[in-house]
Amino acid sequence: MRISAMKPAALLIGVALIAPLAGCARGSASSKADTNYVASDVNTLYNAAKDRLDRKQYKMAAALFDEVERQHPYSPWARRAQLMSAFSYYAARQYNESIQSAQRFLAIHPGNKDAPYAYYLIALDYYEQITDVTRDQKITQQALNALGELTRRYPDTRYAADARLKIDLVRDHLAGKEMEIGRFYQRRAQWLAASVRFRNVVDEYDTTTHAPEALMRLTESYLALGMREEAKKAAAVLGNNYPGTKWYERAYELMQKYPA
Prior knowledge:
Layout: H1 6-18, H2 31-36, H3 42-54, H4 58-71, H5 76-91, H6 95-108, H7 115-127, H8 138-153, H9 158-187, H10 191-204, H11 211-224, H12 228-241, H13 246-257
Helix pairs in contact: 1-5, 3-4, 4-5, 5-6, 5-7, 6-7, 7-8, 7-9, 8-9, 9-10, 9-11, 10-11, 11-12, 11-13, 12-13
């Protein structure tokens, strides 16, 4: 679920993080220093990594930022390099590596001022891997968990504001998966199994776009099971909350076909 508008925003954030160091001499790291990771002073090595990042050579940039941390673990640059490594891996779409780098940063520097950004990167790494509703949604749940952790820890940050928007999208996606499974059971006349899925949407994802259809499908399933009173309740909730929708019209028509 890679959202094109998100990448420039993340890139700007990444550039902002290295801005305080941009005034240092960029240097001209040799190709040998870039590729063979020979011992280099921290300024030269960091600026070589930044140069690769500027040229959108993200994999090489990540490797060089990792090398800054390896060669100069006690330097102030090492902390920044950890975070820039996580960002570079994210930009290269190497999400697992990005998660590992960000988690390493948080493990070593849990109270750092850039910790919210590290949590944000982890959430983005999971979010970008969300697949369509026909596939397993484990990664979607991980994205929801990571976004939720960010908003709980740092509710007043700009990262949390974006996370809240993404949480709504992720919840809608998870509800869509429940609907897809519920319809699958309905097509096979497995009404009880279907009703469980639709009930879950109504109970857990009632603010998503799938809630009206879930109530209508729940009405269908209950009627097929002979549970007219339960169907009536579902249809009533649908009518109260979504009176002008096609889903209520269908539920109403169904209820007329099954008189008490």
